[in-house]
């Protein structure tokens, strides 16, 4: 059974159709990348899964629960955004612990979980710093830590690396891959960057103007694109 099923989801803003009958199956523990140019509807689709934005029609199933009409807090997903949105007056440790505090977890349990996340992301030396004392890459690691500590059944990433310079992007990309290989949680990752898609994905969904152009493994899209758009976007000459 798929961990996440997006079934025939459509959404319009007035006359603009942003998602047009989009269906995606995400297997348990897999890494799926939604790839497409700016404005094609990637964030809208991810927000629909997270429950941050209502859809006009279609169904979203996470695990065995139809979550289409559930509010975000009942969906058990964690999202990492492009901008890091850390609390500026809290230390790294307090930022990561915040979702646990909100859930009323006791201090000892919380400290243990935060320490585990810090170890996994190799940010132990940063724990008492404030966000303004961190580099962009370190901030994004903390944002990932804050998602991880909740131990959600589904991780959603919306262009998490696009504010970083090229060298940091490569480094954090490798780290996200390592993270997925070590925890094997279901992850859905949005990007317009072909290299990110090809290196991270088990499966890539190529979107254009709110419609799916092609779905497949990185290799199958690269070797056997269905059309000129996919070929051009993935970067193979035809
Ligand atoms: P992407 O993440 O792929 O860049 P988005 O999902 O953010 O694309 O946006 C898809 C389209 O929907 C764009 O044309 C965008 O301008 C439009 N859009 C997004 N949010 C709104 C909104 N709240 N109201 C009107 N149009 C929107
Ligand atoms: Mg977007």
Automatic annotation (TrEMBL):
Claim: 4Fe-4S is one of the keywords in the record = no
- Which residue numbers delimit the ABC transporter domain? 4-234
Q: Name one GO molecular function term.
A: ATP binding
| UniProt entry keywords in alphabetical sequence | ATP-binding, Nucleotide-binding, Transport
Q: Give the family per the record.
A: Belongs to the ABC transporter superfamily.
Please give the name of this protein: ABC transporter ATP-binding protein
Q: What organism is this sequence from?
A: Mesorhizobium dulcispinae
Which portion of the complete protein is shown here? 1 to 238 of 353
């Amino acid at each position: 059974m798929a961990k996440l099923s997006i079934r025939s989801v459509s959404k319009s803003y007035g006359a603009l159709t942003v998602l047009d009958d989009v269906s995606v199956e995400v297997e348990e523990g897999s890494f799926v990348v939604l790839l497409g140019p700016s404005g094609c509807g990637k964030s809208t689709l991810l927000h629909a899964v997270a429950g941050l934005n209502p859809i006009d029609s279609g169904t979203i199933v996470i695990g065995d629960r139809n979550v289409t009409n559930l509010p975000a807090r009942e969906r058990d997903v964690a999202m990492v955004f492009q901008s890091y949105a850390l609390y500026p007056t809290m230390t790294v440790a307090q930022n990561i612990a915040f979702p646990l505090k909100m859930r009323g977890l006791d201090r000892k349990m919380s400290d243990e979980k935060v320490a585990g996340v810090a170890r996994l992301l190799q940010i132990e030396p940063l724990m008492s710093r404030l966000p303004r004392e961190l580099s962009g890459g370190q901030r994004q690691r903390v944002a990932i830590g804050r998602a991880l500590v909740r131990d959600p059944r589904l991780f959603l990433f919306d262009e998490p690396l696009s504010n970083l310079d090229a060298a940091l992007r490569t480094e954090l990309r490798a780290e996200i891959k390592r993270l997925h290989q070590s925890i094997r949680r279901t992850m859905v990752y949005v990007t317009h960057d072909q290299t990110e898609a090809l290196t991270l994905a088990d499966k890539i969904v190529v979107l254009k103007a709110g419609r799916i152009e092609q779905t497949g493994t990185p290799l199958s899209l690269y070797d056997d694109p269905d059309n000129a758009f996919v070929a051009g976007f993935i970067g193979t000459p035809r």
